[in-house]
Amino acid sequence: MPRIIRAGATTAGAIADGTTETLSLVYFDLLRLDAGAAHRLRLPGFESVIVPLSGSVDIDVSGSRFEAVGRRNDVWSGLADSVYVPTGVEAVVTARDDGTEVAIAGGRCSETYEAFRIPPERVDMVDVGSRETGSRRRIFHILGQAPGRRVGNLLVSELYADPGCWSGYPPHKHDTEREGEETLHEELYHYRFAPSSGFGGQFWYGDDRVVHGAMTGHGDTFLLDAGFHPTVTSPGHRGYIFTILVGKHRRPLLQHFDPAYDYLMNEIPGLQAMRDKFSGTSGEST
């Protein structure tokens, strides 16, 4: 069942490590390091992406060295600069700046691939919705469909919602494997707001149409295994969601939109482009 983990609630261990009642495929943790501090990471059974949210780091991955990864002061000041780490391989993350914050996004994977860097110029963006429809957001694919056979079933992105706007809208889900129609992908959201006093609403419901919801705050995390799951950001605040998706059986994501809102599918710009990016039918190159 979906659930919210409040900011600061996890004081030891990862925020999600694949052993929760909700998620078995997703790993997520946040590192906070001062200049010169190092963190060793090895995730057996998980491929991962190391994403500096603020500050810069050097990353050593099994003999490969990636220097000065991270080019922004915070998530609001530029595109992500990241490194892909193969399953079970040790990575050492060393901060170059005080107050460096790093997200570790992981997904279950039984194959071992090669480490590689994902610089800002390789981040792929899609603009979805409009302010007129209260649905404008931009999705930046850090690890989208472009890497192809170089990775397993892990997808990582950053979503930026305009003040007062909805994302994940019209409501959609991806909890059932139906050939050509829907795929089973677990998902995790980590929220930020600017200013940080902002908040949002996270809703979820199943076929019974019983709606559940929670107020989301700066630094909260949402674990999702099933159901339709629209999100809204409070007026006067920009919303940010660090998103991890992991496919149970395959990498491409096929979203199933609630048929009750079919009439909105042609009213909200960019929906088809968004679907194409997640499913890998947009013509991205490696």
Summarize the structure.
With 286 residues, the chain is mostly beta strands.
Write the layout of secondary structure elements.
Elements lengths: L2 E3 L10 E2 L8 E8 L4 E4 L4 E16 L2 E9 L9 E4 L5 E5 L4 E9 L7 E3 L5 E5 L8 E7 L10 E8 L4 E2 L4 E2 L1 E4 L3 E13 L4 E6 L7 E6 L3 E4 L6 E3 L4 E10 L8 E2 L13 H9 L7
Which keywords apply here?
9-stranded antiparallel sheet, mainly beta, Jelly Rolls, 286 residues
What does this structure look like?
With 286 residues, this protein is mostly beta strands. The longest helix has 9 residues. The radius of gyration is 18 Å and the shape is globular.
Helix-strand makeup class: mainly beta
Q: Separation of termini?
A: 36 Å
Helices and strands, in order, run as EEEEEEEEEEEEEEEEEEEEEEEH
Query: Any idea of the CATH class?
Result: Mainly Beta
Instruction: Examine the coordinates and then state which fold CATH places here, giving the name of the CATH topology.
Output: Jelly Rolls
Flag low-confidence runs: none
Q: Tell me what portion of residues adopts beta-strand conformation.
A: over 45%
Shape from CA axes?
A: globular
Please state the average pLDDT score: 96
Supply the number of structural domains.
1
| Total number of strands | 23
Q: Helicity, in percent?
A: under 10%
